Amino acid sequence: DYLGRNQQFWDLGRFSGQLNTVQDVKTQIAEIEKEFDLVMISEDIDASLVLLADQLCWPLSKMTSLKLNARKKSLVETLSPEARKILKEWLWADEMLYSHFKQLLHTKKVHFGTTKMEKKVADLRKMNSEVQRTCIEKKIDKDTSVLNVDFKPWSKDVVGFKMNETVPWCRYYGMSENRFIDLLRQRQKDRWQVWEPQQMSQMQDAITPPHPT
After folding, report:
1. How far apart are alpha carbons 11 and 106 in whole angstroms?
2. N- to C-terminal Cα separation, the chain
């Protein structure tokens, strides 16, 4: 696989040659912990997002989302205990990485406060339900090719949503990753095209000697 054996480490910029021993892996985990103020865990995403909002000093409403790229139920496969054991042994470095940050996330949740966390998670889920009611006209779990190109999933094996396009902000919840990234890049380009001439003009003014009087 071109991604490498331990794909979580690969996503974080580490390569197989850096993961030969347990000590190598511990060293890389320690470096990653220094690089990130918060590492979120997908199966505990609501609590993770509560901590992210707190970390950024953002209102919880900024953490609302829809669950995109969920595999269709008909295509979900359950791994046997034996398969899980084999994968855990083969991906032992990723297993160490996951276990470390799962425990670290738990510690952060405890420090945040159990009762406070439960309330915040409930609030977030309530807001997410409101987003679903407002923005999703229909869940498409068969032929997602009928969807608007902005909302078409990258794979035919995942669930798609027919979005309520009469509410402008709803589109951002349902956009596929590639379309959303394209939008962000275009906005950054637009800002650059405004910013760059202004900076060049200021630089020119700074290096141009004053006219003699």
Report:
1. 22
2. 71
pTM here is: 0.82
User: What's the pLDDT tens digit per position in 173-205?
Assistant: 999 988 999 999 999 999 999 988 888 787 777
> 148 vs 145, 151, 153, 174, 175, CA distance in Å?
8, 5, 10, 10, 9
Query: What whole-number distance in Å separates Cα of residue 67 and Cα of residue 65?
Result: 7
Tokens at residue 194, please? 């405004």
- Is the CA virtual torsion 97, 8, 36, 43 positive or negative? negative
pLDDT tens-digit readout, 114-173: 999 999 999 999 999 999 999 999 998 888 888 888 898 888 888 899 999 999 999 999
> Dihedral angle at the C-alpha atoms of 178, 180, 182, 184, nearest 10 degrees?
-140
Q: Widest CA span of the chain, in angstroms?
A: 88
SS3 (DSSP) at 42: helix
Strand partners, 136: 163
CB atoms within 10 A of CB 81: 7
Rounded Cα distance, 88 and 144, in Å: 34
Give buried/exposed letters for 136-148 (b at 16+ CB in 10 A, else e). Answer: beeebbeebeebe
Question: Count of residues for the chain?
Answer: 213
The burial of 208, by beta-carbon neighbours within 10 Å (0-12 exposed, 13-18 middle, 19 or more buried), is given as exposed
